[in-house]
Amino acid sequence: MPDVHAKLFTPSGSHRWLECTASAKLNAELADTTSSFAEEGTAAHSLCEYKVLKAFHDMGVHIKDLPDEDPTKSPYYDAEMEECCTEYCNFVVDSFKHAKDPMIFIENRLDLGRWMPGGFGTADCIICSEGVMHIIDFKYGKGIEVNATENSQLMCYALGAIDALEFLYDDIKIVQLTIFQPRLRNISAWGLTYEDLMSWAETKLKPAVDAILSDNCTYKAGEHCRFCKAKTMCRARAEANLELARYDFRNPPELSDLEVEEVIKKASDLKDWLEGLQSYMEKKALEGYQWHDFKLVHGRSVRKIVKPDEVAKVFIEQGKDPWKPQELKTLTELEKLMGKKAFNEACGQYVMKPEGKPTLVPRSDKRAEISPSDLKSSAAEDFATPVDDIEI
Questions:
Q1: CA 95 from chain center: how many Å?
Q2: Is residue 154 within 8 Å of 148, Cβ to Cβ?
Q3: Is 177 helix (H, G, I), strand (E, B) or coil?
Q4: Which residues is 186 bridged to in the sheet?
Q5: Angle between helices 257-286 and 235-242 (to 10 degrees)
Q6: Cα–Cα nearest to 184, from 124, 140, 125, 235
Q7: What is the pLDDT of residues 148-181, one digit of tens each?
């Protein structure tokens, strides 16, 4: 079942399933999702590919045909993307020029079947030269700084590249891994020997793959949970976060310095986990599910002026200036300027207070519960949270 295995063994998710083998099948069974961040990253990769192929074509080096679609037509294309992709292109060209008798491969699909049945991946750039294989990976994301050191995604690519090119380069001694992340000004590089790469594959990669294929998996919570599609409902992650409860919320002076440090380290993931649970509960409530101890109510709402020109006209007729430089003053400032009562009498018809965003609260809250029949189908989109299963 190559399609199933391909979903199990994604190089981009290897950091997760190498640590938590049980997450491989969990994530394979859950539907893929996307986000504007993922789509933006895809657009940037397409532009990088185009720029590199064009640059080498202009140098008289034909790698493969240029894509038919113009990547600058993407709705995500802007000046920042243009600059970042140009920097990446220049880096790839310089790396090629400094290599000895090199060959280059761009956006090359790699068969990883030797190490993970049905597995494959696509490397952004591979440069092979005498004794050296260089894997370059472009990251457009700016939320997390990615490090090349012991980067399992790039190490998987290196294994696939060696298998594919060993008939041309059978003397690879050094494998160089590079992360190029321009929006964070991050160029991270790490090198290892061919022997070290193969040792990692035998002692770390292969045992994890065998465990996944044999259903001899284990759950393990940690930093890698960030990229897991099942992270919200995972019991192992819940238990890891609930370990904080053993401190019984004692005052900080009663905690040792090591305990304080441990709480702070866990706090970020605990917050992320709780927000995920909250989003899950709200989404189900918006779909009509009624929780036992929680209900949907309209959250806090902010008044806003819906006809600023009409409000400005009223003020001008009274000889008062309602404008900030090039814009209308805030509603509160206008009320102070005219007086709240007078403002309501003269401009109240131009002010509206929309319903607040549905919010899940304990049933002891005094606000009226929203009836399931009043829920709008589009409201579910307000609680959609992007799932980042891929390092972009």
A1: 28
A2: yes
A3: strand
A4: 181
A5: 140
A6: 140
A7: 999 999 999 999 999 998 777 778 999 999 999 9
